[in-house]
Specification:
Number of helices of chain B: 17
Strand order of the largest sheet of chain B: 5-4-6-7-9-8-15
Number of domains of chain B: 3
Largest interface: A-B, 57 and 60 residues
CATH topology of the largest domain in chain B: Rossmann fold
CATH architecture of the largest domain in chain B: 3-Layer(aba) Sandwich
Structural class of chain B: alpha/beta
Helix content of chain B: 25-40%
Order of helices and strands of chain A: HEEHEHHEEEHEHEHEHEHH
CATH superfamily of the largest domain in chain A: Thiamin diphosphate (ThDP)-binding fold, Pyr/PP domains
Number of domains of chain A: 2
CATH superfamily of the largest domain in chain B: Thiamin diphosphate (ThDP)-binding fold, Pyr/PP domains
Helix content of chain A: 25-40%
Structural class of chain A: alpha/beta
Oligomer: heterodimer
Shape of chain B: globular
Radius of gyration of chain A: 20 Å
CATH topology of the largest domain in chain A: Rossmann fold
Number of strands of chain B: 17
Number of helices of chain A: 10
Radius of gyration of chain B: 26 Å
CATH architecture of the largest domain in chain A: 3-Layer(aba) Sandwich
CATH class of the largest domain in chain A: Alpha Beta
Chain lengths: 283, 507
């Protein structure tokens, strides 16, 4: 963190967002830049690795070192960035198709590594950029271009998955609640370890789950919720009459960087310290 | 030797001595079919019997055979005996004594009637002792010597021991070695680490390389240095995981969505695995592109002695980065005469840029207008031309032998160098003049080198351990030649005899 505080809008790049008018991703961008400003993050010390899709474009619009990767691969790329330079503040950003479909297999393993980075999944329940194919979170019976007679597969429940994976910071946000989301993102960035922020980000073009319909079922997680209690976190996530937003779970365990340093320390007395020494082991 | 042993099925090299494990005077039990024109001698030793007599079991026969070899090759007996002492002392006096007795008896089993003149090894000249390493270890040592400190991978036969070696030795050099859930995550994390400024590498084999295809595209498109080591095995599909093949060349050179430049290197010997891996990092860094090092199972698993390199002479390169005052108006993908543009690492103030797999303009913003795509494709591919020109001026990028008057020449790649050179030795003894070129960098094709090699030749032979002759195909696309392509697709390397027979047939 630097002492020079930038205003939220000073974190925006020169590239204008290509999102549709009314898209929830604008709320994500506002909350994100506000959180950066709150924490005095320097743009040059920040890397966003993003995936492919509407929300994969996120990295284009933020002043930072931006890496727009391949479909589904933003998360392992972000882990590489953080492992290579632990001084950087690292983000992975993408959507539900990118993160839970093609890239879904990476999340449990990222949880195991607990790299100190923040992964934001903007979930609109549809492949919006390519005009409306089913995604892993498309609601059942919803008609899409790849489900012309209605979706028959059941959607994933990301928060329950993330809790089961053992991710050390799990939160759910709503892109139209910029204030609430700013708080969540600020806490996620501060969290030492892998933080995942799942966003309800209704698509204005291809999804009939509107912001208004979501507002009716959304409720903030009660203030007295104990973030360190995994059972309580699951109870909130299993609630079927409400969708809770806020921070479900947060624990402090060693990060990838801690683990790498630990392995370096363990090898210290056992292995040579330079290339010549290693060669000499094989004489 | 037993009839079912592998050695007994191999053809016998001219001038060999065949030592069957049978009592003397019982040569009729030889199971080896020896061509009539091969001069050879048979010298039977009762290896099993000696072992049982001296150690009480057949398992001492390695020491019997070792003793015999030491006698035949005139290797100092004491030195070898000391090595046996070192190896067996910790197993107790009884085991040690039995093994030393087996060794002695083997030594004594070679009589004075043996033709010692033909068989002796020159002692090494003394000085620093060599390291004895495998091809995979040589690659891993090259990774370390090149200054790579970030390795990510997924275990796959026969590349796993490269990964294991780095897991063991890199942490104490401040390195990070991570196992990922698959090859795609491994290469993606390498690209992230490269973006952050590290020299990076991922070890794999053919099926893993296939999975990495899309991220090789990305590396090429966003111009990130990356080294992939592919220890080739028999394919396709799961194929022959523990057998050798040279069948990933076409994928390494062309495998991609769209067209994207990369360099492909194949070391030709175990020692070369070390030096070519370093070259791979230098090319990756200097030209900001993926470099694929192809080795193969036969070279990966074999061990050989190698002198410890003079590390002070190893030149290491790093990607060009902007200096002070260059952040203003910085264009990450500037279209330059060499195709290479300077980069900036995260942490550099004022030089933030976007690296995207979308087609982009010189500053990195997405742009797929017709002329921009044409221009940026040319910019990226120009790096290959620049590299090819630079390689023309390097002296250590091939094994080359061009005897005056030779009309027949061999161009091959990778570990076929061993059997080819051995076969050339036989050919020379027979008075044949055969040229030989084994380039190290296969892509970009070393056009000038190959051109000047083939000019005086009437006939070109290409030996490849695959089914379709991938390197020959590559050569034919660029040179007006119709080579004789000799392929072997059996999961095992060429033997010198096979190469020699092919030379004789075509000379």
């Amino acid at each position: 963190m630097s002492e020079v505080a930038l205003k939220a809008k000073e974190y925006r790049s020169d590239v204008k967002p290509v999102w549709c008018v009314g898209c929830g991703d604008y709320g994500e961008l506002s909350a994100f830049t506000q959180a950066l400003s709150n924490l005095h993050i320097q743009p040059e010390k920040m890397v966003i690795a993003s995936g492919i899709g509407c929300s994969g474009r996120f990295s284009h619009f933020v002043k930072c070192y931006a890496f727009h990767t391949a479909h589904g691969r933003a998360l392992p790329a972000a882990i590489g960035v953080k492992a290579a330079n632990p001084d950087l503040t690292v983000f992975s950003v993408g959507g539900d198709g990118d993160g839970l479909g093609i890239g879904g297999g990476h999340i449990p393993h990222a949880a195991r590594k607990n790299a100190d980075l923040t992964y934001i999944i903007s979930d609109n329940g549809i492949y919006g950029l390519t005009k409306g194919q089913s995604s892993p979170t498309t609601p059942i019976n919803r008609v899409t271009t790849t489900a012309p007679f209605g979706m028959v597969e059941r959607p994933l429940d990301p928060v329950r998955m993330f809790l089961a994976y053992g991710i050390t910071f799990v939160a759910l946000g709503f892109t139209y609640d910029v204030k609430g989301l700013t708080h969540i993102l600020t806490e996620a960035i501060k969290h030492k370890g892998f933080s995942i922020v799942h966003l309800l980000a209704p698509c204005v073009n291809y999804n009939i789950t509107t912001a208004d319909s979501l507002r009716e079922v959304i409720a903030p997680i009660p203030d007295d919720h104990d973030r360190g209690d995994i059972k309580k976190a699951f109870q909130l996530a299993l609630e079927d009459t409400k969708i809770y937003t806020g921070i479900f779970y947060q624990i402090d365990t060693p990060t990838l960087d801690d683990d790498v340093r630990e392995l370096q320390a363990r090898s210290k007395t056992r292995k040579p310290k330079d290339i010549r020494g290693i060669f000499e082991q094989f004489i | 030797m037993r009839p079912h042993s592998r050695a007994s099925r191999r053809p016998v090299v001219a001038g060999s001595v065949y030592i069957p494990d049978v009592p003397r005077g019982n040569q009729g039990r030889s199971f080896v079919v020896i061509p009539e024109n091969y001069p050879f001698k048979t010298y039977p030793i009762e290896i099993d019997e000696i072992s049982v007599k001296q150690t009480g079991a057949k398992r001492g026969k390695n020491l019997v055979a070792l003793g015999a070899l030491v006698r035949i090759l005139n290797i100092p007996k004491d030195a070898t005996q000391n090595l046996a002492v070192q190896k067996f002392a910790k197993k107790g006096k009884e085991v040690l004594d039995a093994n030393l007795k087996a060794f002695d008896s083997g030594y004594g089993a070679i009589g004075a009637d043996f033709d010692f003149e033909s068989f002796h090894l020159e002692a090494t000249k003394g000085g620093a002792p060599d390291a004895v390493i495998s091809g995979n270890q040589a690659v891993a040592l090259g990774v370390i010597a090149a200054g790579c400190r970030y390795v990510a991978g997924y275990p796959i036969t026969p590349a796993t021991s490269v990964f294991e070696f780095l897991m063991e030795y890199l942490p104490n050099l401040g390195g990070t070695v991570l196992q990922f859930e698959d090859e795609i995550a491994s290469i993606a994390s390498c690209l992230g680490a490269s973006f952050a400024g590290q020299k990076v590498m991922t070890p794999t084999s053919g099926p893993g390389l296939a999975l990495m295809g899309e991220l090789i595209n990305l590396a090429s498109m966003v111009e990130l240095p990356l080294v992939i080591v592919d220890v080739q095995r028999g394919g396709p599909s799961t194929g022959l995981p523990t057998k050798t093949e040279q069948s990933d060349l076409a994928f390494a050179v062309y495998g991609a969505a769209g067209e994207c430049p990369r360099a492909v290197i194949e070391p030709t010997t175990i020692e070369d695995c070390f030096y070519q891996t370093i070259r791979a990092f230098n090319i990756a860094e200097e030209y900001q592109m993926p470099v694929i090092v192809l080795t193969d199972q036969s070279m990966a698993m074999r061990t050989k002695n190698m002198s410890i390199p003079d590390f002070s002479t190893i030149e290491l390169k790093e990607r060009a980065k902007i200096g002070a005052g260059e952040a203003e108006g910085f264009a990450r993908f500037a279209d330059t005469p060499t195709g290479v543009s300077k980069t900036a690492l995260p942490g550099t103030a004022g030089a933030m840029f976007l690296a995207t797999g979308l087609e982009h303009n010189e500053i990195g913003a997405p742009n797929y207008t017709p002329l921009m795509h044409q221009k940026m494709m040319a910019k990226r591919f120009r790096k290959l031309e620049t590299l090819a020109k630079a390689l023309d001026n390097e002296v250590d990028n091939s094994t080359c032998e061009l005897p005056a008057g030779a009309a027949v020449g061999i161009i091959s790649w990778g570990a076929t160098e061993g059997p080819i050179r051995e076969a050339l030795g036989f050919a020379k003894k027979e008075g044949m003049k055969v040229a030989h070129l084994q380039p190290k960098v296969l892509w970009p094709l070393p056009v000038k080198m190959i051109d000047s090699f083939i000019k005086p030749l009437k006939k070109i032979l290409v030996f490849e351990e695959n089914f379709t002759g991938q390197f020959a195909t590559l050569l034919k696309t660029r040179f007006d030649i119709e080579p004789v392509v000799i392929t072997k697709c059996q999961g095992i390397p060429f033997t010198a005899e096979e190469v020699y027979e092919a030379i004789k047939k075509n000379a």
